[in-house]
Amino acid sequence: MNKATIRILFALTLTSSVWLSACSPTVKVEAPDKPIVINMNIKIDHEIRIKVDRELDNLLDTKKGLF
Questions:
Q1: Residue 38: pLDDT above 80?
Q2: Which site in 18, 33, 61, 62 is 20 to 30 Å from 25, CA atoms measured?
């Protein structure tokens, strides 16, 4: 190998090591300063529908003292 080839290989090695060290990601995990607040303003509406048979409906209408 001649000096020019060695210089090129050295330059490529140096350049690639700089690029690889610059791309190393860092992850930082910390607890938050303030507590986590979850706002749960939820309105729950439900509707229950009961389907009554006509015979039973008539029975309930005629016998007023059942309930």
A1: yes
A2: 33
Are the beta carbons of 10 and 3 closer than 8 angstroms? no
Q: Where are the beta strands (DSSP E) in the chain?
A: none
CA distances from 55 to 44, 51, 59, 61, 62 (A): 34, 12, 6, 10, 11
* pTM check: above 0.70: no
One-letter amino acid of 29: V
Residues 6+ apart with CB under 8 A from 60: 52, 66, 67
CA distance 50 to 55: 14
C-alpha angle with apex 60: 55 to 65, nearest 5 degrees? 155
Interatomic CA distance for residues 50 and 39, integer angstroms? 35
